[in-house]
Design goal:
The complex is a heterodimer. By secondary structure, chain A is α/β, with parallel strands linked by helices. In chain A, about 35% of the residues lie in helices and about 25% in strands. The termini of chain A are far apart. In chain B, the strands form 3 sheets. In chain B, strands 1-2-3 form a 3-stranded antiparallel beta sheet. Classes of the chains: A alpha/beta, B alpha+beta. At the A-B interface, strand 3 of A face helix 1, strand 6, strand 7, strand 8 and helix 12 of B.
């Protein structure tokens, strides 16, 4: 069965046509050699990924990526898959509203999707229903907003929250001045902070 | 059966066998692991976020820092992704130089791996040799790019500088030297009964699930799959070169070690072919003023075969002077988290660092 399916899909176009036939509402595009892009509505993602894995041999879930389209009010989830038999990289894309960052977990289809979803949850604040392991991953004791969102201003956040640390750092950076003062010498101009030159 | 009391053991974040900091929380009964949990977060430098606030060119010094032992696949991936979105052509000579640099980086990374793999097995001579040999490759990089570890050499449109005069001769001489060292390394490491006994049957990955679990690179080839990005989706000029993709069927550390050992020879052969076939001509297709350089809207997923496996970049442009999103997929992302947690169960505490090294654990590429 599997072999017949692969024989029919000799080229990317043939494969794309086959997806289009089964999933009529999806927008399928052959990007280039070995790259096919599928854009579909969010609720179609789990059934389509199951179909791609079982019917078209997309065994390898390379990554799940998230792009924040702040101006349009969407998060774009990109599921990147690879088929070892067809040598095609498939990019399955869907958009979910920014004000309702919830989606369905696919860790039942690929176990390691759990880690990817955990990172997206931490960095973008998207909750994946069905994934029980959405705890801390890269960030520790983080109570700020999800940091990879486009509206998260890193400079502003650190100025507001790490003021004490920034002062401490400035003191630490003035080692030369402290030493020259202690030994009663004048610091050369080029070594002074820009504000004192 | 006597049930032993379970104890929790924190292994790391300073680790003997890997580059970078990562912790494995182990639940052990006696010295057998019952449950393992990977804890990362010691190296998070928010590179992906940083790149969103920098221009395309300013992102270059960041990408290579994503992986310390082998920074060049990052540069090449990022450059190729930008070229693909923009539709920029790369001169033929630049492609050859890129492949030479990538393969030299592989050799350097193999040196570190051999050192780590044998060092974690208690053979402390090999690290002294192979890390020393790696330095000869770093000398070449220093001459070519100005940097020993981070090169910032491969960028959109080609490479930063042409090869210095007589450089290829020095590369060939270094290759001859590296090849002449292999019998001694074999004698001390691969033919060594201690190493073989430590490696055989340990860190077993079930070939039935290897692909489904997201395993790539030597661990996948150690399970008997002949999959290599350089063959499956040839980039640059890999389709013009002749090389073998070694495989083993064991699925254990020994199989992965043998695969890497044979890949070392293949990399040497690839660099020789590249030097022999390298054409003349331009090495760089100039990009516009980097400060105002915009990339048309679009996205691209590109990948390279690094020593640890598939290294992928998903880059999105919104038509501005800065990337909208750069997402890095390092092989260690799967190998050191979900796969490691799985295959550590049932292993001995003494084998943890050994197994981590065989999977090519590299925390900086998990955290980016």
């Amino acid at each position: 069965m599997m072999n017949d399916t692969i024989k029919d899909l000799k080229t990317e176009q043939a494969f794309a046509n086959q997806i289009q036939k089964t999933f009529k509402t999806a927008r399928v595009r052959v990007v280039r050699e070995k790259r096919v892009e599928v854009i579909m509505s969010a609720d179609m993602i789990p059934p389509y990924l199951t179909h791609a894995k079982n019917q078209h041999d997309f065994e390898h879930l390379t990554h799940i990526s998230c792009v924040d389209w702040l101006e349009e009010g969407h998060f774009e989830l990109v599921y990147i898959l690879w088929s070892y038999s067809m040598n095609i990289q498939l990019l399955v894309k869907c958009r979910i509203p920014r004000h309702e960052p919830e989606f369905i977990s696919i860790h039942k289809i690929w176990d390691h999707a759990e880690t990817y979803e955990r990172e997206i949850h931490e960095m973008y604040g998207i909750t994946f229903a069905g994934n029980d392991n959405l705890g801390e991953f890269l960030l520790e004791d983080w109570d700020g907003p999800p940091p990879m969102r486009r509206d998260f201003d890193t400079v502003k956040y650190s100025q507001e929250n790490f003021k004490d640390r920034m002062d401490a750092r400035q003191d630490a950076q003035n080692v030369r001045e402290t030493i020259t003062k202690r030994s009663g010498e004048e610091m050369p101009d080029f070594a002074k902070p820009y504000s004192l030159r | 059966m006597i049930r032993e009391k379970e104890t929790t053991l924190y292994l790391g974040p300073q680790h003997p066998g890997i580059t970078g900091n990562m912790m494995v929380k182990l639940k052990v009964a006696g010295d057998t692991i019952v449950k393992a949990e990977t804890h990362v977060g010691y190296l998070h430098r928010a590179f992906e976020k940083l790149m969103e606030t920098r221009t395309w060119m300013q992102s270059f010094p960041i990408v290579c820092r994503i992986c310390v032992p082998e920074p060049d696949p990052n540069e090449e991936n990022f450059a190729r992704a930008v070229e693909e979105i923009e539709g920029r052509e790369v001169p033929e000579r630049a492609k050859y130089i890129r492949v030479m640099v990538l393969e030299l980086a592989r050799l350097a990374s193999f040196g570190l791996w051999m050192g780590g793999q044998s060092g974690t097995a208690g053979l402390y001579t090999i690290p002294q040799w192979t890390v020393g040999d790696r330095d000869y490759i770093l000398d070449l990089f220093e001459e070519l790019t100005g940097g020993r570890v981070y090169h910032m050499y491969i960028w959109p449109g080609g490479v930063r500088k042409d090869l210095p005069e007589g450089f290829t001769d020095r590369v060939l001489k270094t290759l001859d030297y590296l090849e002449s060292r292999l019998p001694a390394i074999d004698n001390l490491m691969f033919d060594n009964a201690i190493f073989q006994k430590r490696a055989q049957g340990v860190g077993y990955i079930d070939p039935k699930h290897a692909r489904e679990w997201g395993v790539v690179g030597p661990p996948l080839r150690g399970c008997g799959f002949k999959n290599d990005v350089r063959i499956d989706e040839p980039y640059e000029i890999y389709d013009k070169l002749k090389f073998e993709v070694p495989t083993e069927t064991g699925g254990d550390i020994w199989a992965r070690a043998l695969v890497r050992r044979r890949e070392y020879e293949q990399s040497i052969s690839i660099i020789r072919q590249v030097i022999e076939k390298m054409p003349g001509g331009e090495f760089y297709n100039k990009v516009p003023n980097p400060l105002t350089w915009t990339i048309p809207p679009g996205d691209a997923y590109v990948k390279t075969e690094s020593v640890r496996g598939e290294f992928g970049y998903y880059v999105v442009s919104d038509g501005s002077t800065k990337p909208r999103r750069v997402h890095v997929r390092g092989p260690a992302y799967v190998h050191a988290v979900s796969l490691l947690e799985r295959i550590l169960v049932g292993a001995n505490i003494a084998d943890v660092a050994f197994i981590m090294n065989s999977l090519g654990t590299c925390p900086p590429e998990i955290e980016r």
